[in-house]
Design brief:
binds flavin-adenine dinucleotide; 354 residues; 8 helices; alpha/beta; seven-stranded mixed β-sheet; 29% helix; 18 strands
């Protein structure tokens, strides 16, 4: 759906990724009109994500065979000759097709496709004082709302407008081959010589196999060398780590736009959905109180920090230790983890320190 004139809805969401779409649905259920602006012409495309997501997903979205490609119950983490095997008695994580998943989330929502947010405007009455509307400029016209939510991913224009940046911006590259792979385990391989600050992975996707690398500085050549890959489908994307400030006058940042990824894996879906729920409640309260000031919206950041703020802080510290360790130290850590594997098997892969 495209528009050429000034449009107004209660809430504008920049970015029709999974987090923006899930949030739009929640807002609609609380009686607010939400318009999602998406720069691409198709939801879910391009796909830059592995879509490995824990069963915590069940509490946000009903699992569907339409987008679940495979299910895994465990992981093997290796470094040289050292390894640890972690497993759950049943499905630990889904391997989902992100394009289909995102498309299913968009059903029934007001999404303006091919509309890139190019700028945010404070408006005549001064959004900085929490007065007036907030507006967003696009080549298709100006869109206005009472509140704007930046769900526009790792390179968020909305976050940049307010000067909020993640602490780190890493990169993930993925190669998908046509090898059938119904293994029960995801493999994580650490090799400091091949990637000093990241890790490689192999994900069974059922009809295909995914090879990947997540690091500060990556290239498809690294994947090709490490796994001996030839003839594969390429995907790549940015992974923001360490959120900056996430609330401003008439504005919130949610998901990757806010840097809400797990520092140990780069996964961002569960934290993004968790924050979207808190954002939806904050926005509904703001409409009820007719208060869109920064002071009122601060409760959103307090809310998400209460749930996973410490996980991210501890994860950033763990990441720093990992980046400053060699294969020897990582091997030792894996051998120690083996001793505690019965305990680790019971852990939640999203909320490690619950
Ligand atoms: C290689 C890789 C592998 C990953 N694997 C996993 C995984 O296995 N599990 C997991 O949980 N997470 C994974 N992630 C992270 C996951 O992809 C993100 O956390 C998730 O996509 C965040 O969703 P989002 O809606 O916040 O942002 P995004 O999915 O990035 O969506 C942002 C949307 O905004 C749109 N947009 C951007 N700028 C504008 C603009 N100016 N105007 C309009 N629209 C705009 C984009 O087109 C996009 O549709 C991975 C990431 C990468 C890069």
């Amino acid at each position: 759906m495209l528009r050429d004139s000034v449009e107004k809805s209660d809430v504008l969401i920049a970015g029709a990724g999974p987090v923006g779409l899930y949030l739009a649905d929640l807002l609609g259920k609380s009686g607010l009109s939400a318009t999602v602006l998406e720069e691409h012409e198709r939801i879910g495309s391009p796909n830059h994500c592995s879509g490995l997501v824990s069963r915590n997903l069940d509490s946000f979205v009903k699992p569907s065979r339409e987008w679940i490609e495979h299910e895994v119950s465990g992981a093997v983490i290796r470094c040289g000759n050292s390894f640890v095997r972690l497993r759950k008695p049943r499905t630990a994580a889904y391997v989902i097709d992100r394009s289909r998943f995102d498309a299913s989330l968009a059903e029934g929502l007001d999404v303006a496709l091919g509309v890139r947010v190019e700028g945010v405007s404070a408006g005549e009455e001064g959004v900085a004082q929490g007065k007036g509307d907030i507006s967003v400029k696009t080549r298709r016209g100006t869109f206005r709302s009472k509140i704007l939510i930046g769900c526009d991913g790792a390179n968020s224009i909305v976050a940049r407008y307010f000067g909020s940046r993640p602490k780190k911006l890493l990169m993930g590259v993925i190669g998908i081959t046509k090898e059938e792979n119904y293994s029960e385990n995801v493999e994580i391989i650490i090799d400091k010589k091949a990637s000093p600050d990241g890790f490689f992975w192999k994900i069974p996707r059922g009809r295909t196999t995914e090879y990947g690398l997540f690091s500060n500085n990556v290239d498809f050549l690294d994947l090709e060398r490490f796994f001996g890959l030839k003839g594969y489908e390429r995907r790549a994307g940015l992974i923001p780590l360490g959120p900056g400030k996430t609330y401003f006058p008439r504005t919130l940042l949610v998901g990757d736009a806010a840097g809400m990824s797990k520092p140990w894996s780069g996964g961002g879906l569960i934290y993004g959905f968790t924050a979207a729920r808190i954002a939806a409640k904050t926005v509904a309260d703001a409409f009820e109180q007719d208060d869109f000031s920064e002071g009122f919206l601060e409760r959103y950041e307090r809310g998400w920090k209460n749930v996973f703020g410490r996980q991210i802080q501890a994860g950033m510290l763990g990441r720093w230790i990992f980046e400053n360790s060699g294969d020897f130290e990582v091997g030792m850590a894996l051998r120690t983890m083996r001793i505690f594997s019965p305990l680790l098997n019971g852990m939640d892969m999203d909320f490690l320190a619950k």
